[in-house]
Amino acid sequence: MDTNELDAQRGAYREGFPFYQESELMLDWYAGRIVRALAARGVRSLVSLGIGQRIVGPRILRDSLPVLDAYYIVEGSGDAIEEFRRGVKVPPLVRLEHAFFEDYEPPELVDAVEMGFVLEHVEDPAFILRRYSRFLKPGGVALVAVPNARSLHRLVGEAAGLLDDVYRLSPEDLQYGHKRYFDLNSLTETIAGAGYRVEVAEGIFLKPVTTGQFAALALAPKVVDAFFRVGADYPAIANAIYVEAAI
């Protein structure tokens, strides 16, 4: 993949894309979960892979920056970096690094690497996991999230004959730049095979129906939030999977 290809995918990360609002909700939940994990683990130095919809990085800057000594944000798209700089005041200790994940090397070992919704995009997820394990201090942690092929709504769609294969990528997945779907087993096996010890596995958003059907229900915010809170206990069938894995 080259920089032009990454820049071309930016449209899927802007308002108007069919799953934009749902992605915002999921990333907001994920960002909050990351902030709690960083605090619980006493993380002082962090690498984030990717900018995406500019939700996770700004949340970390807002809630975790006071306790971070170093924060490196790595992004292969120059357009994404420029959008981030225009929308977020970047403090001096934060370094925006224009590089491919496969090539980047931080200037120091760090306590944690955050790779939310990254492994479904890259050519070789195991390579990325192994590479960044080299940059973690002893006891360091990888914080990972990916979409789940076996989300409840996809299983229901397959059972109803509306989806022929839960692992098949949709046109929207391809527009996002997705290359694969994980499930809970394949994700944890890939992470463990790269030399990590999985310590936490949670779900993100128990999604019972399609995006359009869920939006049409016009549920109260507290009910939507309940689908996220309940989903944390069901990573095997949640819409996405969150993992904390230490070396």
Write up this protein.
It is a single chain. Helix content is 39%, strand content 20%. The chain has 247 residues and is of the alpha/beta class. It has helices at residues 3-8, 20-41, 56-63, 78-87, 125-133, 152-159, 171-176, 184-193, 211-216, 221-231, and strands at residues 45-49, 70-75, 94-98, 110-116, 136-147, 197-204, 240-246. The protein has one domain (3-246): Rossmann fold (3-Layer(aba) Sandwich), CATH 3.40.50. Helix 2 (20-41) runs parallel beside helix 3. It is globular. A 7-stranded mixed β-sheet has the order 3-2-1-4-5-7-6, with helices on both faces. Strand 1, helix 3 (56-63) and strand 2 form a beta-alpha-beta unit. Residues 7-12 have low confidence and may be disordered.
**What is the H/E order?**
HHEHEHEEHEHHHEHHE
CATH topology: Rossmann fold
- Supply the CATH class: Alpha Beta
Question: How many beta-strand runs?
Answer: 7
Provide mean pLDDT, rounded: 93
Number of domains: 1
What is the strand and helix layout of this fold?
Elements: H1 3-8, H2 20-41, E1 45-49, H3 56-63, E2 70-75, H4 78-87, E3 94-98, E4 110-116, H5 125-133, E5 136-147, H6 152-159, H7 171-176, H8 184-193, E6 197-204, H9 211-216, H10 221-231, E7 240-246
Parallel strand pairs: 1-2, 1-4, 2-3, 4-5
Antiparallel strand pairs: 5-7, 6-7
In short:
With 247 residues, this protein is of the alpha/beta class.
What are the main properties of this structure?
Rossmann fold, 247 residues, alpha/beta, 7-stranded mixed sheet, globular, 39% helix
